Amino acid sequence: MTALDNTLDNNEMVLNMGPQHPSTHGVLRIVLKLDGERVKSTDCIIGYLHRGVEKIAENRTYVQFAPYVDRMDYLAAVSNGLGYCLAVEKLMNAVATPRAQAVRVILTELNRIASHLLWLGTHALDLGAITPLFYTLREREAVLKIFENYCGARLTTHAFRIGGLQYELYEGFEKEVEAFCGQFLPKVDEYEELLSGNRIWRERLRGVGIIDAETCKRYGVTGPVLRAAGLAWDLRKSQPYSGYEQYEFDVPTRSSGDTLDRYFVRLDEMRQSVRIIQQAVANIPAGPIMAKIAKVVKPPVGEAYVSIEAPKGELGYYIVSDGTTHPYRLRVRPPSFVNLQALGHMSKGALVADVVAIIGTIDIVLGEVDR
Amino acid sequence: MAEEPKPVKAPAVMATAPWEGPVPDLLREHFGAAVLETSSYLEQPFAVLTLPAMVPALEMLQAEAGFDYLVDITAVDYPKRTPRFELVYILYSHGRNERIRLKAAVGLGEKPLSAVPVFLGANWLEREVYDMFGIEFSGHPDPRRILMPEEWTGFPLRKDYGIVEMDNRWVQANLGIESGQ
Description:
heterodimer; A: alpha+beta; Cytochrome-c3 Hydrogenase, chain B; three-stranded antiparallel β-sheet; 8 strands; B: alpha+beta; Beta Polymerase, domain 2; six-stranded mixed β-sheet; 4 helices; 6 strands
């Protein structure tokens, strides 16, 4: 990625993709240097959606800042909120109650499914398969309905509070979640029938945008991209939080690290999420939803880094506290930002049309890349 | 709410514990006096190094201790301290399943060595640190701003940069409005 190299050979050309391009999933601009149809180098221009979230954090109290994190990866707002709450709780040396932890796991896994569903629909749409989007949005709607019933919001949910939950579960929550799980698994098989069994789909994705596990590590790539390259690394397993160690689930992996494998990994992850939700919802502990924490959130002087396995990879919060009600410094380690960096490696030598597939398969959200 | 316990007055400095184990031993063995502190807080270990030892330490930890994943690079601004900034590197080892932090103080105008030769992922992370704090990395392959516009002046995450402050010249020239506020 030597973007400063402005010289072109006789048969090279520069193509500007985005920021207003449907397949860049937001305001991402990529300057492609092409030799015919082949990509020689890419330069990502980002920051169009930069809102200075980290600066805002320094000027808000810990409690006031909590809703802002939902606006980063707005497709996985619940995960963002969980990471933030865990980080502040760590600084305060507090732990959410067992009931709150179980509900957090259920909602976060539902959110993972919703995020992967939207990814699947739009990724297929980018590649010319229009039908799956209608199916995936239908199922995602059921998840959003559950969020709406629980906290009143569908996307930027702000579902959790530092120390536990704001709301007690509503009447019939368990039934609704169980019903969703029961009808969702056959739907995943249906997507498989639509796409996995489709020769055009397979040929379109196989061997496109290959990245191996070693390169992933050098770039710091995490999440489904890393697992499709063969490394079974998932923070829910390796450093469990919020009680994930109680649940039985597998970490799906594949070996070739291409776009097709990333598709399979995400499908399998949705199935595993259902497994986790079913175990959690069958056994939500009784008790309070909020831990006993001070009314004014004021962590002692110190610092902590806490990260979770968000749908897109490792989402971390590094918070420095100076003992006041405002964070002295809050850094978000965004998975989309770090993963996007590998785009140059993955698309080198690929066709222009494949760049669309590769952007889709990294699964970025520009709100999180730019923050 | 009479039975609720009164919160204990928190100490004004970070209440750290010493960090013992093979990794701090390895750091001290290789870098000796350049290792200024090895502590842990809330069971999260960290080491403070001198700035010149930072990138060699990353390289050594990657090669000898299996810290093969650079999670993050960021900085914290302490305007009253000299040197002013603190650079923070977060490392993770897949083999050990351990996460550590390395920190070093950086003065205004000092140019730390780029970590890109060791970890490719450092590229954008260092660009962001430059963009937000104005810390330039020597030997960086692509030293541009990343999130802010390239012609922007000022470094937003410095403590002396106000929350509503902006580069009015840039805003007027590019957005055609008097001010963003």
